[in-house]
Amino acid sequence: MEYKDTLLMPKTEFPMRGNLPNREPERQNKWNEMDIYKKVQERTEGRPLFVLHDGPPYANGDIHMGHALNKILKDIIVRFKSMSGYHAPYVPGWDTHGLPIETALTKSGKVNRKSMSVAEFRKLCEEYARKQIDRQREQFMRLGVRGDWWNPYVTLDKAYEAQQIKVFGEMAKNGHIYKGKKPVYWSPSSESALAEAEIEYQDKRSPSIYVAFKIKDGNGVLDGDEQMIIWTTTPWTIPANLGISVHPELDYNVVAVNGKKYIVAAGLLESLEKEFEWENAEVVKTLKGKELEYVKAEHPFYDRDSLVMCGEHVTLDAGTGCVHTAPGHGEEDFIVGQKYGLDVLCPVDDKGNMTEEAPGFEGLFYDAANKPITEKLDEIGALIKLSFITHSYAHDWRTKKPVIYRATAQWFASIANFREDLLKAIEEVEWMPKWGETRLFNMVRDRGDWCISRQRAWGVPIPVFYGEDGEPIITDETIEHVSNLFREHGSNVWFEWETNQLLPEGFTSEHSPNGTFTREMDIMDVWFDSGSSHQAVLEERNDLQRPADLYLEGSDQYRGWFNSSLSTSVAVTGKAPYKGVLSHGFALMGKDGK
What we know:
The chain has four domains: 1-33, no CATH class; 35-159 and 536-584, HUPs (Rossmann fold, 3-Layer(aba) Sandwich); 171-199 and 402-420 and 442-524, Rossmann fold, CATH 3.40.50; 201-393, Valyl/Leucyl/Isoleucyl-tRNA synthetase, editing domain (Isoleucyl-tRNA Synthetase, domain 2), CATH 3.90.740. Helix content is 32%, strand content 22%. It contains 17 helices and 25 strands. Strands 6, 7, 8, 9, 10, 11, 12, 13, 14 and 15 form a ten-stranded mixed sheet that branches. A four-stranded parallel sheet has the order 1-24-25-17, sandwiched between helices. Strand 9 and strand 10 (260-265) form a beta hairpin. Helix 6 (158-173) crosses helix 17. Its EC number is 6.1.1.5. Belongs to the class-I aminoacyl-tRNA synthetase family. IleS type 1 subfamily. Keywords: Aminoacyl-tRNA synthetase, ATP-binding, Cytoplasm, Ligase, Nucleotide-binding, Protein biosynthesis. This is Isoleucine--tRNA ligase.
């Protein structure tokens, strides 16, 4: 195997001495011909095994200094171990599924996505990914990193996908996988749900509005002529409002001002008087939040009730202490709404446009709906104040555009089911630096359930069938069969074959008395892909072992690969996939752009 003439040469402002531009490739060609990696492995065979498991870079674009830093650090450790009495294989890997590859193809101008089937598009995605792997492999090898470069692991390989299906199946068998409609991060720009690891925060300018909700039924504690004031920076969620949350233990004042009576938290009254420029406000009654429970207010412009509920999530950090609650657009809203039996209203579609469930605003992009909704509130006298703020807001880390909370039917991994096992596993790992343990511990302690489904084409399909009654079917038999099919044919068969061809021969279910089945068309989160490598690589390959001795990546992977690998491994094996984790910093661009 010889290097091609297309190998990238390092850029430098200084002349390279000793004819290095020619001699370096010659030397590396010689190492390649000698198969240095194989010779080292043969020399150290039989020694105690040391496994540094490679976190897979994404197969898209040329490598950069961050890649170089990471790979060279790994090479230093692997070489040191192989010279210190260990057998230290190094198997590089690549992460190959996901939106960036879909986007690269569609933006190339050479692919008309709408003119082809899902299976045809996926084949183009695979071809693109493999070309990127070849390109990056040449560049990594130019760094002088020693490894099994011609036998790497790749997340789109058949054997890898087969093992990933088994990870999903085992998690489902253990009761950790479920489907539910609840608010998740939704990216209108990607038209897909996102996991926490796919979120980054950027500043965003948003409207800040205070809105009055008239009391309809005082439930024996209010006179009925009061109004509750809520605060929100997302006016577009007002059409989805179904309730108002108060803290049961906080004091709430009924304040008479300008001939009207408003309800706000007592602890915020002073600041709100300044905010609204109230003069001569008089407190006519004070109530505990729990006394306001089941009071009914009126939606500002729709003919429906807004139920007052008690929620522990209400604070005095900002707003009025009366929290606008839209169960279809917020995690805490959803939780309190479920407690009180509210619907999960979500009048926003996949593209971020308001639906017919938001009469008067249908078809408007959610962000564009802010202005007409605010104008409507002002028109009917419900708008107390409008201003604008710049605040940190969630964005899609790929498209760099804002995301929203949106209730959709998604597949989840229930972190709550095995959270204590995760925290225990973290404590048993050696962390370098030590603060890494605290960082991941806190993340796992505070994280919600993991949304693992994506509404995309390029990825590993979620191996779920549905009966005629709509019931999801996940059994040992179906998982084993799909895994074997993927190992033999690859996951594209999920999109090429008929559903009955994907099921075991003669399969029957009480959920389909007529023998008719359908299948899930969502794919798995790419973090589930790479997070399954402990089984798809460490268990699959004879030259490696689980748990690995070391994972070594940048510190951004506490919320990424370290986290997803831990979750899938503990869910399946009860243990962490690594004995030690070493995180490093980043290669930053200099002030002069170099």
